[in-house]
Amino acid sequence: MTSPSRTSRLTGAWLKMPGNIRGILWLSIGAFLFSVTDVIVKQLGRKFDPTELALFRYGIGMIMLTPVFMRMGLEELKTKCIGTHILRMSLAMVAQLGIFITVINMPLADATAIFFSKPLFTTVVAVIVVSEVVSGRRWMATIVGFIGVVIMIQPGADTINPIALIGVGSALAFATANVLIRVMSDTEPPNRILFYYHIGGILVFTGPAIWFWTMPVGIEWLLLISIAVLTTLGMTCFVRAFSVGEANAVGPIEYIRLIYAALFGYFLFSEIPSIWTGVGATLIVASAIYIARDEARKAAAAS
After folding, report:
1. What is the span of the domain harbouring residue 294?
2. Would the pLDDT of 215 be above 60?
3. CB neighbours of 203 closer than 8 A, spacing ≥ 6?
4. In the chain, how many domains are there?
């Protein structure tokens, strides 16, 4: 058992670290938790329908966040933007289901690389939805990233993998949902958005999950619950990372998930990434890092 004095010394040593170092460590932990979640989803997906996995994701997440929602009270949870909430959570739920399907049916490294195309779609959607001004260099980075996506999908091959298209569609849907958060941010606090998101997920996925229901046994219950727990903990690590470190220094560390995914895929599922996965992922990650740094520069200039 750790003594209070030892705990305080460890806390003091942690707080003495530069903010960027702490942010990098937080983000590394969060990326690892998300990668472990993908492994669990892939394993459970051999037996359980993706809608059942989604129901556990939203249901357990709702239970974990209920104390936060109770502290807010009914008045704080009320909204005048219910239409925007429905649109945003519909896109996010479609994306979440698509992510599960992609992770279950594609090599982990491929699925992870495709999901990293989300910043590319965010650039395009932000221009259309909120009329964001984008520099020529950022457009070039976005185009390079999309070339990486095309390389991974390989449209010139004899058959295009439909699961890869689902993954790309999920990235687009999540990007659009995230841009809608910007639109809602003036009147809707984050916890209110989370409330409607989880309520919507439970309502939407309960029916299909019951229809395709497979009864968990033994440790499967714990694994199903861990999908929501690990996702919530991973999100918490990401929030802490960006609260103590600079976005342009901390953000690129997220791409360590590709390394985790490749290692987990190889050792647990005997997956060997193709050369096209490596080339495409490199282009996607390079362009996404440039976009993240461009966002950080804009934020610094605005402040």
Report:
1. 19-302
2. yes
3. none
4. 1
